[in-house]
Amino acid sequence: ARAGVEAAGNLFHHCTFTGGEYGIKTNRTAPGWPFLLIDSSFSGQRQAAILTDEAGMTIVRGQFRDVPRVIEVPADRCEQLWVRDSLFERISGPAITLSDVKNARTQANLQNVICRDVPLLLSLRETNENVRGLGSSFVVRDLIHGLQSNN
Predict the structure, then answer these.
(1) How far apart are CA 128 and CA 134, in angstroms?
(2) Which of 15, 52, 138, 142 sits most deeply, having the most CB atoms within 10 A of its CB?
């Protein structure tokens, strides 16, 4: 299967995605509101658990296991990503791949993300910059890429 869900709406909760190329493949929601994914799990996708651009992807308490990527943003596309209180486990490629990294709308915020067997946490497509994992198990307390406040 290509994706469990394509062109997702504004809120998903308590969903389980197993197998396929992607669990969710989406872009900007119809009214332009952020897409909230809460208490959901992904495993066994062949390309990435989530392929997204301009969805305002917000993930709370997500579980991602045995996938090459947790989140991928297609080339030349932007995303405003926020991931909180989640688990990344046995991720073979970069957990998150961002694109259009010089665009002010490209942002990634990770808070309290537990990582197990995640050698590469973040990859910036156009610049080839990477944020490597910090050993076999680590917790990302607060990672911000993109616009941030100096307050």
Answers:
(1) 19
(2) 52
pTM: 0.92
- Look at residues 78, 33, 30, 36 and name the one whose alpha carbon lies nearest to residue 53: 78
Query: What pLDDT digit, counting tens, does each position of 83-134 carry?
Result: 999 999 999 999 999 999 888 889 999 999 999 999 999 999 989 899 999 8
Work out the widest C-alpha separation in the chain, in whole angstroms. 46
CB 57 within 8 A of CB 81: yes
Torsion of CA 71, 98, 122, 142, to 10 degrees: -90
Q: How many helices (H) and strands (E) does the chain have?
A: 0, 16
Distance, in Å, from the CA atom of 147 to the CA atom of 151, rounded to the nearest integer, reads 12
Beta strands of 7-76 (E only): which ranges? 11-13, 16-18, 22-26, 35-38, 41-43, 48-52, 57-60, 63-67, 71-72
The CB density around residue 61, as the number of other CB atoms within 10 Å, is 16
